[in-house]
Amino acid sequence: MSGPLMTPELVRLEVDPPGDKLAVIGLMADLIAATGRADRAGLEAGLLQREESFATGMPGGFAIPHCRTDAVQEAALGVLRLAEPVDFGAADGPADLIIGIAAPAGTDDQHLQLLAQLSRALIRPEFLAELRAATAPEQVSDLVMGVLEPTEAPAAAAAGTATSAGDGAPGDAPVLLAITSCPTGIAHTYMAAESLENAAKDKGVTLHVETQGSGGVTPFTTEQIAAASALIVAADVNISGRERFAGLPLVEHPVKRAISHGPQLIDEAVAAASDPSAARVSAGGGSAAGEDTGSAGKQSWPRRIQGAVMTGVSYMIPFVAAGGLLMALGFLIGGFDVAFVAQDVATGYSLSSLPGAQEYEGATGMLQTDRAGLALYLGAVLFTLGSLGMGFLVAALSGYIAFGLAGRPGIAPGFIGGAISLAVGAGFLGGLVTGLLAGLVALWFTTLTPPRWLAGLMPVVIIPLVTTLVVGGLMLLFLGRPLAALMTTLQDALTGMSGSSAILLGVIIGLMMCFDLGGPVNKAAYLFATAGLSQGTEAAFEIMAAVMAAGMVPPLAMALSTVVRRHLYSPVERENGATAWLLGAAFITEGAIPFAAADPLRVIPSMMTGGAVTGALIMAFSVGSQAPHGGIFVAFAISPIWGFLLAILVGALVAGALVTVLKEVGQRRQGALA
Questions:
Q1: Which of 275, 444, 489, 619 could form a disulfide with 502 if both were Cys (CB 3.0 to 4.6 A apart)?
Q2: How far from the centroid of its chain's Cα atoms is residue 162's Cα?
Q3: Domain around 239
Q4: 597 phi and psi, to 5 degrees?
Q5: Are 161 and 152 a contacting pair, CB within 8 Å?
Q6: Model confidence over 376-408: pLDDT tens digits?
Q7: Among the options 66, 111, 253, 629, which is catalytic?
Q8: What pLDDT is recorded for position 185?
Q9: What residues does the PTS EIIB type-2 domain cover (predicted)?
Q10: What is the pTM of this model?
Q11: Which residues share a beta bridge with 639?
């Protein structure tokens, strides 16, 4: 570490605010850049980008605009005390005390520990009062540097060491764990930890905190996890190591809520520790079905149902990928006649049964083929395997939707309901219905309190049996035929689409694929396409091609934009752009999520425009895909491949150009405000 983080030159008192918070951030960039520690334009861009993605106003009338960027050569802290407060997005009002944190992209551990100490100090009202009472820059500098003295204990805590708040709770009081994490890992991570620790100390509750910040993570010990009664997760990013806490009651909120409502989170965790129906961390490391992921109370029913459907789609995708790709490989190796030969392979025919000539006579009749011998046989084997895999789609969808709602007791009724849907011709629509029905019925049974002698039989015998009877009976007696008729009507309508109506369908598919970049709307379009693959019609193949091509556009478009206009993006975004080339090529739409999260109002409309263009072109060129996933790596299953590539190229160019123009205009406006 070189010089001190703060000097009197980095402090300005009683500053007349130049305008809104964007102008104040520009003033902070001026202050820090004037000391030679940072490039002014790059620092301001980093601070503004952070502010756009997450407002930095904090309870108590202060704000902490901060960033880590290559534009900073030496870490620095700047303080602006405003004569009139400015709104920085805090719920309790505007801020008059602005503490700017500028960190180099390669900030060392010692600097990160000191910045974490400052973040913790800002939670203390007495420290803020001292900063407001200071009459000279030297006093402010001394106060800040006073809390940054590198003592061993704070440094360890800043690096993420599990700590305990309070002098120890009564023997029967719960022991709580908390994990805090924010996108940059500099400020909010440690402020949330300090807030929760102070609240736990005031309430006499034992709390261990793991900060997953830029300074690294020192995880909980095995003993701390074993003694814990509940877990608090205060984070705006995915935390690592959730699987360590499987079964623990869970309270989960954004990191900012822990800063502003620490005592409430402690109360929620204490209550959850003694609540048998509380949300819990699932064995898979995620949250159990029905968990509380919002800021108040239980998750709403619409969100729980949406989450269950997403769970079903997520577990169904491996069946789609394996089955669909095996079928596509079968066509590639054995030709399009493998579907005919596969019927014989499945009933016991072997390689020796297949002649070397082009004419094949099997149990199902005579066939003139364009392949023969080993190629035809291997293609038929692969096609058979794929067909069997695809046959599980509806059952897997239904079973895992039920699992998402009710846990393990819902799996068997859900799978059986899906099989019934397939048998009566209700398809994936029936699978959705049976999955939700099975999950809701099984979930209701889990709320009952049976006698102790019966409790052990409930999840493995009683609930699956009765739920299957209810769901199966409803499907066979009442729901199956109407759903089958609806499915048939939908299939006939899609099969009959041509010309302008098919192009309109392509536009709609493209918009859905790019609306939430891997979210529920995206997955709904994907489910619609993959469920139709088993029909083997040209219309189904074209819909699949439109879904895959449109889903490839967002990451490719953002990668292109980061290359064409590098100055519009932070170093981290440029790195994400380099990765996005491969993600886009492989049909991983989620590769564009980091860009959309930082600038949704410009990125998402641009991506939807490009996706709509691509979907329309796919339909106009009559491009079909027999593979459900893989992007350009399954080119053998796409025809005509030139139409597929051209549609993606045009869509990516449109989306990339549009997002670049919008970002250029936005940056010019910000420059004018500064």
A1: 619
A2: 27
A3: 175-281
A4: -65, -35
A5: no
A6: 778 888 888 888 887 888 899 899 999 888 888
A7: 66
A8: 65
A9: 176-271
A10: 0.49
A11: 624
